[in-house]
Amino acid sequence: MGHTTFIPDQDRKPSSLDKLDWLLEEAYSSEREVYILAMSKGKLRNPEDIVQQCAKLANISSAILVNGTIDFVVVGDENSAKAVARKLHEQTGEKIAIIKYVPLGHTYLNIREALDVTERKGDPWHFYNPDTESIDALLKN
Amino acid sequence: MGNSHSTTFDELQEIIIDLLAQEGSSIREIADKITGYKDKFSPEHFDFLKAELRYINESRKNMDSRVRELFKKAIVDRTGLYTRLYFDERLGLCEHTQNLAYIMCDIDKFHDYNEEYGHLQGDTALNSVAMNFKDALDKTKMSDEKVFAARYGGEEFCAILIDYTGKEDLIKARMEQIRTSVEAHEIPLVVPAQFDQGYKHRTITIAGSIKILNEPVLSLVKRVDDALKDAKKTNRRNTSIVS
Prior knowledge:
The structure holds 2 protein chains of 2 kinds. By secondary structure, chain A is an alpha+beta fold.
């Protein structure tokens, strides 16, 4: 058994995960809070249109399709994030997970965990609390 | 190796990370199930199952970090800066960013350096200047500003400064600082050789500008590119700001 050498592909384009990271890094600073509002792409017929339309809502700094999710970056506080979540739900009928952005975290995994929890709760939108609702927290109890 | 290979590679990271995310959903479901049947287990067995799930969850997160790290390597040039293709994509996302500055620099007479000291030493000089360019950018960074530096091509490097809120005189002073820092930095000797002292230092010519209100990013790049070209024609080892 030999070993495998990983040869980077210098022509690689950034993935949507990379782009989400950029958008969040760009929006984040030590003086302001950033929230991710996520919805599942699920059965939506035209997710690209939703990205286009909802990106124009107040307080949304950017919107992007990442794998099976549509993610909106909101700069502001908890209340403004909730207000945007309400509007997003009204506009799309989809359940919205609200996640506070933490740099250097497992952002996409957290988004999916938050969506999982939101789906289970059945609320139109849900503010995800990793301290009590993450898998880590679940397995600690 | 055609586009199909490249597309598969592009998608690979997303596929892996998505599978890891799905695994999270399964772990949660298992945790819910065993909690529902807690009474059927002895406390020791229940703790054992939870510990196993914690281990799987931790491995999942470690793999997420490692996959992201691995894929990041694919977007970095041999100089340690981002590749041009990656830079172009990043620049494209800045179309509507208002507070933006763009800087470009070129190593003076790099062809002559390669001829004089050989390509091995030339590569070392290239890497050394690239890293010094990036370090100087980081050291002079304003708070909350994001710096994204790349190898534009050949011996040319560039950077976008996102959320740059300074004025022209400030960026000019900063570019001058970068230029002198690169010039002062000593390039290491890659193999023992009887070179004159010329291998130790290289000068650069640098140009930059701030994005005008509603200006397309490509127009900003062109203005700076033209300014750099002009500066190289008339006077190397120069700092040039375009309005």
